[in-house]
Write a structure and sequence with these properties.
mainly beta; about 130 residues; globular
Length: about 130
């Protein structure tokens, strides 16, 4: 073997480590709460609090729906909101907002909205935050 080829061959077998594989198995997601969204006394949508079971622990997020139940976007536990885009797999980031203001942004209403919790059946295995 030529000396240059041997050096090249040993360089290709270095101790470069690949990142661990991403665990992309489906996760169980359950609804833990639901809120009616009102604007000027009229119901304009809802916010669904969801909890995903993850190996690192339960993850909470919220889905914002219009009054017909169409998904408009999501909110993270850190208050980051994203808008669903038609015919796309990703969402448009619209920033960090307090819950009511982010919901109003997704519903495209002028002024304030009020959120009122409505009863839902919560599975016993779900951990609810007060």
């Amino acid at each position: 073997m030529l000396p240059g080829i041997a050096a090249l061959s040993s360089a290709c077998t270095s101790s470069h480590q690949l990142p661990p594989p991403i665990d992309n198995r489906a996760r169980n997601v359950v609804e833990t709460a639901r809120y009616e969204v009102r604007h000027r006394g009229e119901v304009v949508g809802s916010v669904v609090q969801l909890q995903m079971e993850d190996p690192s622990g339960p993850l909470q997020f919220w889905r914002v729906e219009n009054k017909n139940g169409a998904w408009l976007g999501h909110a993270s536990a850190l208050g980051r909101f994203s808008r669903r885009l038609p015919f796309r797999d990703d969402e448009q980031d619209i920033g960090i907002w307090p819950m009511a203001q982010g919901v109003a942004q997704l519903l495209e209403v002028d002024g304030e909205v009020a959120l009122r919790e409505v009863p839902v059946a919560v599975p016993a295995s779900v951990t609810r935050k007060p």
